[in-house]
């Protein structure tokens, strides 16, 4: 069985985007039933995002409610969260200030109900080198606030530049097969 950050995960993951980034999102009841079913079927690697919805209601708000109702499931899930965009916009902002704002906001929205296993900037901001992004996020890992770092929609060269000899970097979609 595959593992991420030393935790076993099913061979299929689950993305929560359509639960909150939708003009007519499904009810919480439908979402909770779906999330419970994913766990029953072994899909315990979940993806959420600060950008999956609005600043007032996104997938992190939903997951807070889910883990409030089902606290026994928090340790069963390996949660990867995308953020790092300008608040309320679909525009990358790789500044240290914004990355910190984004991680802190994600942690605030989860409110200790679930650990932030992986954080990844949804887009790499060309105005800021990936090395800077990794440096900021590595501080959060060292502090125990996030479990690992993910990279989203980057190429092989960006992965090479981001690489540091640490065991908490995770590569997700957008990378060539040879680099996953």
TrEMBL record:
Domain (NADP-dependent oxidoreductase) ranges: 12-162
Listed GO MF terms: oxidoreductase activity
Domain of life of the source: Eukaryota
Keywords: Oxidoreductase
Entry-linked Gene3D superfamilies: NADP-dependent oxidoreductase domain
An example Gene Ontology CC term for this record: cytoplasm
Annotated protein name in UniProt: Aldo/keto reductase
Organism name: Penicillium roqueforti (strain FM164)
């Amino acid at each position: 069985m595959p593992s991420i950050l030393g935790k076993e995960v099913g061979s299929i993951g689950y993305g929560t985007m359509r639960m909150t980034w939708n003009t007519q999102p499904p009810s919480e009841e439908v979402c909770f039933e779906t999330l419970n079913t994913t766990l029953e079927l072994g899909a315990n690697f979940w993806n959420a995002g600060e950008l999956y919805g609005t600043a007032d209601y996104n997938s992190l708000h939903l997951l807070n409610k889910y883990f409030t109702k089902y606290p026994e499931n928090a340790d069963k899930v390996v949660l990867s969260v995308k953020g790092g965009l300008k608040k309320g916009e679909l525009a990358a902002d790789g500044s240290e200030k914004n990355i910190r704002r984004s991680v802190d906001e994600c942690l605030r929205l989860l409110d200790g109900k679930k650990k932030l296993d992986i954080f990844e900037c949804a887009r790499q901001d060309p105005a800021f080198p990936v090395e800077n992004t990794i440096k900021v996020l590595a501080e959060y890992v060292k502090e125990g606030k996030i479990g690992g770092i993910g990279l989203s929609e980057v190429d092989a060269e960006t992965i090479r530049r981001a690489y540091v000899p640490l065991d908490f970097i995770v590569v997700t979609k957008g990378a060539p097969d040879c680099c996953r």
